[in-house]
Amino acid sequence: MTITTSALTRGAGVSAVLSGLLFILIQPIHPPENVAAVTGTAWVVIALMTIAMAVLGLAGLTGIYFRQVRESGPLGLLGYVMLGGFYLVTTAWTFVEAFVLPQIADDAPRFVDDFLGVPAGVSPQGDVGSLPLLFTAVSVLYLVGGLVFGIAVYRARILQRGAAALLAVGTVLSLAAAVLPHSVGRYAAVPVGLAMVWLGWSLWSEQRTPAAPSAAQPHNSPGASVPTR
Fold first, then answer.
1. Which of 185, 213, 220, 222 could cross-link to 177 by cystine, CB 3.0-4.6 Å?
2. Is the confidence at residue 171, as pLDDT, over 90?
3. Where, by residue number, does the polypeptide cross the bilayer (predicted)?
């Protein structure tokens, strides 16, 4: 099988679509974030889905960026690095949720509760080190990265501009999650998920559209001679 740039780009489009769909699906089915939930099967399944969302999101984001690397300029690079950083840290954070917290839930329930309370903005009762600062940094990567990358894609005029605008606006709307209960605020992820689906579909379909023949290209009829020099 021949691997081409077009095939890789279409694959990135599919990755972005799947990432967006997972981002949306996870929100209504996420288990309660407490020590009692981390030992259940549903917790591990959702955590693995979240890791898949982040890995696919990074792959899709990379394809989206490199399709318009020149047109998006420094703004696109900044947005790509920041939003890509969000996906990377999400992968690491969720790995701990999936494979570390269930193992220590019985011996260190307070730490587990404090760890899970960080995304919800709950003040930890014990020592969790720099986790609150790390989560704040991740939030900045998500909010600023999504806004900047959305603006860069919009200005590049390569993919669907509506999808780029939805990404930019959707990440800004996520600020509402800070004043809402965590179980409700998580639905602020839905517009961003839809934007990733839309951008991924735009990237995939753009690569599937054959290039139109140039009007200036000469048409060689069967009897026409082809110049050799």
1. 185
2. yes
3. 12-30, 42-65, 77-96, 133-154, 163-181, 187-204
Q: What is the mean pLDDT of residues 141-167?
A: 97
Residue from 135, 153, 160 nearest 61 by CA: 153
Q: pTM for this structure?
A: 0.86
Domain boundaries, the chain: 5-208
Exposure string (b/e) for 79-93, b if CB count within 10 Å is 16 or more?
A: bbebbbbbbbbbbeb
Confidence (pLDDT) at 1 = 66
Mean pLDDT, residues 62-89 taken together: 97
**Dihedral sign of CA atoms 148, 154, 159, 164 in order:** positive
Q: Is the pLDDT of residue 214 over 90?
A: no
Longest dimension (CA), the chain: 86
